[in-house]
Amino acid sequence: MKAYQPTDLGRPIVRFFQEYLPTLRGMSRHTIRSYRDSMVLFLRFTTTDCGRPIEALMIDDITADRIVRFLACLESERRNSITTRNTRLAALHTFARFLFAESPEHMATLQQVIAIPFKRGARVAPIEYLETAEIEALLAGIDRKTPAGRRDYAMFSLMFNTGARVQEIVDLRVRDVRLEPPHQVRFTGKGNKVRLCPIWPRTAQLLKELIQKQTNGEDPADQHIFLNGRGAPLTRFGVRYLLQQCVTAGAKVAPTLADERIHPHSVRHTTAIHLLKAGVDFATISQWLGHASLNTTMRYARADIDLKRQALAQVFPEILAPPKGGAFVFRGEDITGWLRRL
Length: 342
Prior knowledge:
Layout: H1 10-24, H2 29-50, H3 64-76, H4 82-102, H5 107-114, H6 132-140, H7 147-162, H8 166-170, E1 177-178, E2 184-188, E3 194-198, H9 201-215, H10 236-250, H11 264-277, H12 282-289, H13 294-298, H14 305-313, H15 335-340
Antiparallel strand pairs: 1-2, 2-3
């Protein structure tokens, strides 16, 4: 059997993910995983586009024209948003710059890749979050008589309690939770930043019961808390699937759940919105959620319609009276003039 020889593309890819990103750039594992997903998608597209297996691809196959077709495919076939498209392109830009030092003889081609511009027109998607009745319906729809149901109930209760990112939840280990007063949990977020979040006594009890049943009374500190049926840690895709199952079951009680696009990050948004409604200041919410900038937290002030109604009620409440009901009655005025005054 002929021994496999890495191509001039295979070797740089390995160094890119094993050395450059984690060591020289100091990127977090979350960013590295995002870059990995972008690279996998591009390699799959390239092997179909040029008709050769992935292990036979070369640096010469990374061309600006092919990347442009790849980006178009993301939007047309995978239905990715402009934001996601630009994220994939940013990963390829970084890899192309890395290849400059690895293979300077390909600099002309790689410069064309880096010259591919980001697409403008990305829309800021509205923040999806759950109201109190919807949260109750979602949790009530979980069958807690089964081990999987008890796991899901504890996991989503913790997510609503802390507003943690889904990757932070699946990475959580026994050593990261304090189940005695003061109850708290330790998360490692973006940029390897560590933060502590308080949890309700009820949430701590749910976690305690879950851990005891999974470990037979033992307490191995390094064990992940949320496991699948095979005993392996849940993935963020698994959590998304489980959440969709809970949303479907909860929609029988709260029909509004069926009309919303709920995903794990919606749970994080829900925690932020409810903290804001409770009067918690932005700085505290920012620290609670692990935001890198206070500007990220400020967007929640624009998301909730109840907060807008409260603000409106405080601005000249007697002068700005509510509009009178009834239909508009046309009395013969110039219709074009009336329309201009709208």
